[in-house]
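Supplementary Methods S3. Complex input for the erythose-4-phosphate-bound model.
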Amino acid sequence: MKFFIDTANLDQIAEAQSLGILDGVTTNPSLMAKEGIKGKANAIKHYKAICKLVAGDISAEVISTELATIISEGEELAAIDEKIVVKVPMTLEGLKAIRHFSNVGIRTNCTLVFSAGQAILAAKAGASYISPFIGRLDDISYDGIQLIAQLAGIYAVQGFQTEILAASIRNPVHIVRCAEVGAHVITAPLEPILQLLKHPLTDIGLQKFLADHHKLND
Ligand code: E4P
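Predicted complex, serialized as structure tokens:
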């Protein structure tokens, strides 16, 4: 399972990169706004900065909603760097745009996926990735992990090449459960990724090892 970081914050991306386990980055318009990035020129500059930090795929989301403008905006984003994957919302126009991008060799991440039907359509249209939002489903009392498991089953049975990129991850358990049920990729903020490291018995065990060593050697 690949690990992507879900942020537009350059410091956090650099920190995740330094862990040696980072495979890519996802952004969205809310995450870009959180970093205070305003206007197209600044957005392009920021995506270039992310591309310099990370070797893997970097999702950059369109803000257009009509087919023609999704296509022109997506082409501009894809031209920034070969690592850029154009993130397109799961709408009727978005679906048509994904088919177009697939036909011309531009990779896409179909975002705001909340159901198996949406995931099947995105795969049929040739999306490189789909982003089902686990946390937002959990927030409304649906089981986000259950959706990932269902999609993993459907994609395997059907032989779809689209990768399931589990998004909207809120905690380390989400990441572990995604690995169990067959997500190809998770994207998470830095904190849940770092929380995977933690176990109280590791800390207690290490303290004891070091204390025993120092008793004899100091
Ligand atoms: C990633 O592709 C999504 O944009 C992101 O994971 C959404 O996460 P949120 O539900 O925490 O905003």
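The chain has a mean pLDDT of 98. Residues 204 and 210 are 10 Å apart (CA to CA).
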